[in-house]
Amino acid sequence: MKKTMRVALALTTSLTAGSALAETVTIGHFGNPTPMQVARAEGKFEEATGWDIEWRKFASGSEVIAAMASGDIKLAELGSSPLAIATSQGVDLEMFMLAQVLGSAESLIARDGSEIETLEDLSGKRVAVPVGSTAHFSLMGALDHAGVEASDLTLLNMPPDQIAAAWEQGAIDAAFIWQPVQNQIAETGTRLATSADTAEWGYPTFDGWVVNAAFAAENAEAVTAFAKTMDEANAAYLADPAAWTPESEPVQTIAAETGADAAQIPTILEGFTFVPLSEQLGETWLGGAPETMRSTAQFLKDAGRIDRVAEDYSGFVNTEIGTAATQ
């Protein structure tokens, strides 16, 4: 009896000590209704990395930049436009994989009754967007494509929840925003353009995963395990997208984690492009990321959004993590 108690006590002490030794890591994300939410709900990231993870939801890339710059978080999801802003400002981070390529997941919606039927009709209207986000970059690209000056309209800087509220109050005429708010406002609006359209016009956007360079070097195995788990989560969806119906367990889990309507999630997922990590390592994605950052930064500088463009962005891309994760 005493021996059994001693063994049980030793086991409890060992487990408690192991838990105490687990490093607490805060990871920033946008709460998008994507496959990673399933792995997050199942605790797969904690299991793979050994971290005690605190998931922190951010409303915009500018918030992520501030948190990364201050050292408050070490790993986060970040859109391509704020990524270009952060790297141009010299924030110590490295992009190590794509989260998703943005297509119809971000769109410009004109409110019914606003008398906006074309991009040119945005002149003189109130247009909301989270400033500094990928949606903001896409909006500026759409205006440039249409030959409309940003100064010709009233640009309102709002996070998604405020856009939804302002829309209901009739306080804005149009908004460029992501899911699930996009679907919400589209019920009483018309889609003018998507991020897929602006990409064709020369303004591509994506969400990527970034990490503090020193943290990545000190935690190489864990960050690699994080990337591998993320890739596996996306692969589960890519294996059979049609199986992710509103009633399916993965979609129900995503709905529970994000608050998105399960009935809309399959369509939302179709609006993203999830690129397998092995394909990301080529020139199209991570290989070409430094040039994408530079061209995005140049556009933002020309638009008066940032003050400088760096000479070389290659130091802000880490392909070693992805390479290790796919072996």
From TrEMBL:
- Keyword Signal among record annotations: yes
GO cellular component terms listed in the entry, alphabetical order: periplasmic space
InterPro entries, per database record: Peri-bd_TauA (IPR010068), Solute-binding_3/MltF_N (IPR001638), SsuA/THI5 (IPR015168)
Enumerate the spans annotated as Solute-binding protein family 3/N-terminal domain. Answer: 24-241
One GO process term, biological-process aspect: alkanesulfonate transmembrane transport
- Which top-rank group of organisms is this from? Bacteria
Query: Signal peptide location in the record?
Result: 1-22
Q: Where in the cell is it found?
A: Periplasm
Pfam families to which the protein is assigned, alphabetical: NMT1 (PF09084)
Question: Which keywords has UniProt assigned to this entry?
Answer: Signal
Give the main location. periplasm
Q: Which family does it belong to?
A: Belongs to the bacterial solute-binding protein SsuA/TauA family.
The protein's matches in NCBIfam families, at most eight in alphabetical order, are given as:
taurine_ABC_bnd (TIGR01729)
Name of the protein: Taurine ABC transporter substrate-binding protein
Organism of origin: Limimaricola cinnabarinus
